[in-house]
């Protein structure tokens, strides 16, 4: 019998395919069986077992506190594999856990582990601080601990009943402010000309590209802003820690002498100035909690439950009349965008879904954005306007930043509520058109051609900007600013002239914005939810429904077991080769700044009208 290679190869492939298919079916059958077993255990176990009395809720915050987690579950898994993951904790989850703990008879105390907390805005910290105060008001002890506190971590810690620090640690409260990089000379050296068209005396976003330092208007505005925010910060800490007014500033002024007197012991300085209640190592903290709590023989520690496990016990309602929440967090861009960024189309679609959902009776737009595309901002504002016209109340809740485009999207609400530390306003518009005619001239590169009209190649980055095109862009910028002030005047029930007087690209704190009529009142995110429920005449116990991008199958499966995209980790951006001698953080900041020059004009339009404030509180 002759050997037939093709026939043998075919039989081998069929065998391999059947084995692969059988393995696949076995894997998914086992996974399905596991799901059935877990569901059966959940059903027949009588639900969650009550907590042992005096259980301590341990909240170990790792990473950034955010309004909305960025990245999908698949992104998270990939990041973990690559070792590039970074934890994000959603503000809503923090508030859920703290408010549940305040009412839970099984929770005897709360322990805040803060040394791994990274980024957080002042408005978010104020929200969490108020929730910590509610836990204390329920009669429960709140203990904060860290090896070292930066000033954001310490703002949270100051709300605790007791604050502890490692004996070799420090409380690094230093004040607000920043130095920005300015690139005028550098761009001149390489031959790049930055053509700026703007409306707004205080619109300082583009100043790093056209000057070597801040304008007097920008310096004035930033001074007023930072001093107001710092005053709010110190007043909050001094009230929580029962310190005399001005104690924080006084300590900073005398810090060199205080450190000298304490022999350079920063922890001792913090204790002597009543910033902390004691100096304890982690094991000493554990021993203290064992003594005051309930001993757990299994873990040989105090009886406790972690943040994620406790969050899983307090899942939101899935059905019933609701206040719908759309989170607008991040830069505002044209088109669609994932979580952590605002897309003109995608965020508009979420608002539309909330409007068309019969169970959602009112909408809260939670804004944390420095702005971006004016066109995308208007798409979002229009959807909110249509939602109000459909009879559903719209409340805007401003978080850390709701400025420029972030303010634009807030202009179609029944009520605008800001935190005292919200950065808002920045009503102004600009466009940047960089040209590199000097660069190509040095290289000996020439550009020439034929067009049917002057407009066909009016903006060519390799040629000087055509004055007629500059005039065209400036006219468009003027028009958009007029639209901005007119819409803001209508929303705030005033005149465009009065809006212009407090506009001009200037940023304000939430408190300053309220004084100038740019927001209705000061309050928290919880206040915004209550206001929406009252306007919609919802009964007590109403549901809060977050209207976000549609989750995939993996996320829906994980959500069944208490995991969620709220616990996702972001992928860190890595820079490539760094110039010798420059810190990575500095190079990253420069790269981010200069990237704007290429990104602003990479769209389909001949230029981009931008409403962005470039504002933050370091």
List its traits.
618 residues; 2-enoyl-CoA Hydratase, Chain A, domain 1; 23 helices; 44% helix
Fourth CATH level, the homologous superfamily of the domain at 322-541 and 573-612: 2-enoyl-CoA Hydratase, Chain A, domain 1
The coarse overall form would be: globular
Instruction: Compute the average pLDDT.
Output: 85
- State the name of the first-level CATH class of the domain at 322-541 and 573-612: Alpha Beta
* Discrete helix count: 23
Structural notes for this entry:
The chain is an alpha/beta fold. It has a domain at 322-541 and 573-612: 2-enoyl-CoA Hydratase, Chain A, domain 1, CATH 3.90.226. 44% of the residues lie in helices and 19% in strands. The protein has 23 helices and 27 strands. Strands 14, 17, 19, 20, 21, 23, 24 and 25 form an eight-stranded mixed beta sheet that branches. β4, α4 and β5 form a beta-alpha-beta unit. α3 (91-103) runs parallel beside α4, α4 packs parallel to α5 (151-157) and α18 (467-492) packs across α19 (496-502). The longest helix has 40 residues, at 5-44. The chain is globular. It starts with a helix and ends in a 6-residue tail after the last strand. The relative contact order is 0.14.
């Amino acid at each position: 019998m002759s050997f037939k290679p093709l026939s043998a190869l075919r039989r081998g492939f069929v065998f391999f395919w059947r084995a692969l298919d059988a393995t696949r079916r076995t894997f998914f059958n086992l996974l399905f069986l596991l799901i059935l077993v877990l569901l059966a255990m959940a059903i027949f176990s009588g639900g969650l077992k009550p907590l042992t009395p005096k259980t301590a809720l341990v909240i170990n915050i790792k990473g950034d506190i955010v309004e909305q987690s960025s990245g999908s579950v698949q992104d998270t898994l990939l990041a973990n594999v690559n070792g590039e993951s970074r934890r994000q904790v959603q503000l809503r989850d923090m508030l859920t856990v703290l408010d549940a703990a305040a009412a839970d008879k099984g929770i005897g105390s709360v322990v805040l582990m803060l040394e791994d907390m990274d980024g957080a805005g002042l408005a978010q910290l104020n929200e969490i601080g108020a929730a910590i105060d509610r836990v204390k008001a329920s009669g429960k002890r709140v203990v904060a601990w860290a090896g070292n506190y930066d000033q954001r971590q310490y703002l949270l810690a100051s709300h605790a009943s007791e604050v502890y620090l490692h004996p070799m640690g420090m409380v690094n409260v230093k004040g607000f402010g920043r130095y920005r990089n300015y690139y005028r000379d550098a761009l001149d050296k390489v031959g790049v000309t930055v053509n700026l068209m703007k409306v707004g005396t205080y619109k300082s976003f583009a100043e790093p590209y056209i000057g070597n330092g801040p304008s007097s208007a920008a310096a004035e505005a930033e001074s007023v802003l930072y001093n107001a925010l710092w005053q709010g910060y110190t007043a909050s800490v001094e009230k929580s820690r029962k310190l005399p007014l001005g104690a924080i500033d006084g300590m900073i002024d005398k810090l060199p002498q205080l450190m000298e007197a304490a022999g350079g012991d920063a922890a001792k300085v913090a204790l002597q100035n009543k910033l902390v209640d004691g100096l304890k190592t982690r094991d000493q903290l554990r021993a203290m909690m064992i003594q005051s709590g309930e001993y757990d023989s299994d873990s040989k520690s105090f009886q406790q439950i972690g943040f994620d496990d406790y969050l899983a016990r307090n899942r939101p309602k899935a059905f019933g009349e609701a206040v719908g929440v759309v989170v607008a967090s991040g830069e505002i861009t044209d088109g669609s965008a994932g979580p952590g960024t605002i897309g003109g189309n995608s965020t508009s679609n979420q608002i539309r879904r909330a409007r068309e959902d019969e169970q959602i009776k009112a909408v809260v737009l939670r804004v944390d954005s420095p702005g971006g595309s004016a066109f995308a901002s208007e798409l979002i504002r229009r959807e909110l306007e249509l939602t109000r016209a459909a009879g559903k109340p719209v409340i805007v809740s401003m978080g850390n930043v709701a400025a420029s485009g972030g303010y634009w999207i807030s202009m179609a609400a029944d009520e605008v509520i800001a935190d005292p530390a919200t950065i808002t306003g920045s009503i102004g518009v600009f466009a940047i058109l960089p040209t590199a005619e000097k660069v190509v001239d040095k290289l000996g590169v020439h550009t020439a051609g034929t067009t049917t009209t002057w407009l066909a190649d009016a903006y060519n980055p390799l040629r000087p900007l055509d004055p007629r095109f500059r005039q065209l862009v400036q006219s468009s910028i003027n028009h958009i600013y007029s639209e901005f002030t007119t819409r803001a005047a209508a929303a705030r029930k005033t005149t465009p002239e009065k809006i212009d007087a407090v506009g001009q690209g200037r940023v304000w704190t939430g408190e300053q914005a309220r004084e100038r009529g740019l927001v209705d009142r000061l309050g928290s995110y919880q206040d915004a939810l209550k206001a929406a429920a009252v306007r919609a005449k919802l009964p007590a116990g109403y549901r809060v429904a977050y209207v976000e991008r549609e989750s995939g199958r993996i996320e829906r499966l994980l959500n069944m077991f208490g995991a969620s995209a709220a616990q996702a980790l972001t992928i860190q951006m890595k820079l490539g080769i760094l110039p010798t001698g420059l810190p990575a953080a500095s190079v990253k900041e420069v790269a981010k700044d200069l990237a704007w020059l290429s990104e602003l004009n990479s769209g389909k339009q001949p230029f981009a009208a931008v409403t962005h404030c470039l504002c933050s509180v370091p």
